[in-house]
Amino acid sequence: MATIIYPSPIFGPVHSRRLGISLGINLLPADGKVCSFDCIYCECGFNEEHRPSLPLPTPAEVSQALEAKLRQMADEGLLPDVLTFAGNGEPTCHPHFAEIISDTIRLRDRYCPQAKVSVLSNSTMIHRPEVHDALMRVDNNILKLDTVDPVYINKVDHPAGTYDVEKIIERMKAFHGHLTIQTMFMRGECNGESVDNTGDEYVQPWLDAVSKIAPRQVMVYTIDRETPAQGLLKATPAQLDAIKQRVEALGIPCSASY
After folding, report:
1. Which end of the chain is more exposed for a tag (fewer CB within 10 A), N or C?
2. Alpha carbon 151 to chain centroid distance?
3. Are the C-beta atoms of 225 and 43 separated by less than 8 Å?
4. Which residues does residue 118 pair with via DSSP β-bridges, in sequence order?
C-alpha cells in the first residue's frame, strides 16, 4: 500500500481538487501521523503503523518556514490561491494552533493578501474555545461530518476517546454558518462489513443535520488515493451528483469531487 506522509511544516504547493493551488501547512511531525481519528480511507495510513519519533513543529518553526516559502513564491511570481492546514493528521490537535493561525494570517496579509486560509479538520477539537475562535478567523473552516450514524462513525472513522455526533452537530451550529461541511462518500466493504454510506438510510439523516447546521457550503467527495483498508470503492459520479442536488435543494451550495 502506498502511504503519503507529508513534509513538515510546509509542503507543496499542490493542486487541490477542491481549493485550487494550495500551499500546505502541516502542524504534525514529518515522519509520522498524529490524529484523533484513524479513518480506514486515510491516505496517510493507519495511526499505529506510522507513529512519529519527531516532535511537533513549534510556532516559530512554522512561521519561519512559511515566510521563507512565501518569499520564494513571490519572487517566482507564483503565489498560492490558498494556505491549507492539512498534512499528517489533525491540525487542531497542535497545542499552539490558535497562535499559529494568527501568525499565518499576518504572513498571508503581507505576502499574498488575495489567498484564503483554509483548515481541513475532523471536528474533534471544536469544543475547545481557542480552536473555535481561531477557526472563526480563517476564510475556509472546513469540518468533517461523514455521517450521523454512531455505528458507522466507529466502524469507519475510528475516533479516539468519546465521540458524540450530536454534540459535534451542536458545536458546528455554534459557528453560525461560518463553516463548510466536508463528507466522504464511498462504497465497498471492510472486514466483511459494508461501508457504503451512499444509501438513503445514511444520506437523509445527514441531510437533516446539514440543514440544522446551515453551513455556507458543503463539499462531498470520494476516495482519490490508495487506502490503508482493502475493499473500499469510490462512490460513483451519479451518486455524488444525486447527493449534491439534494443538498442544493436545501438552499445550500454544494460541490462534488469525483
Report:
1. N
2. 21
3. yes
4. 84, 140
Measured CA angle at 94 (ends 93, 96), to 5 deg: 135
Q: Is the model's pLDDT at 111 over the cut of 90?
A: yes
Locus of grid cell 481549493: 19
Three-state secondary structure call for residue 221: strand
Contact predicate 250/215, CB 8 Å: no
pTM: 0.95
Q: What are phi and psi of 248, to 5 degrees?
A: -65, -30
Alpha-carbon distance 78 to 162, whole Å? Answer: 43
Give residue 145's Cα distance to chain centre. 10
DSSP state of 126: T
Judged on CB neighbours under 10 Å (0-12, 13-18, 19+), 199 is exposed
Q: How many CB atoms are located within 10 Å of the residue 249 CB?
A: 10
158-214 confidence digits (pLDDT tens)? 999 889 999 999 999 999 999 999 999 999 999 999 999 999 999 999 999 999 999
Distance from C-alpha of 181 to C-alpha of 255, rounded to nearest angstrom:
11
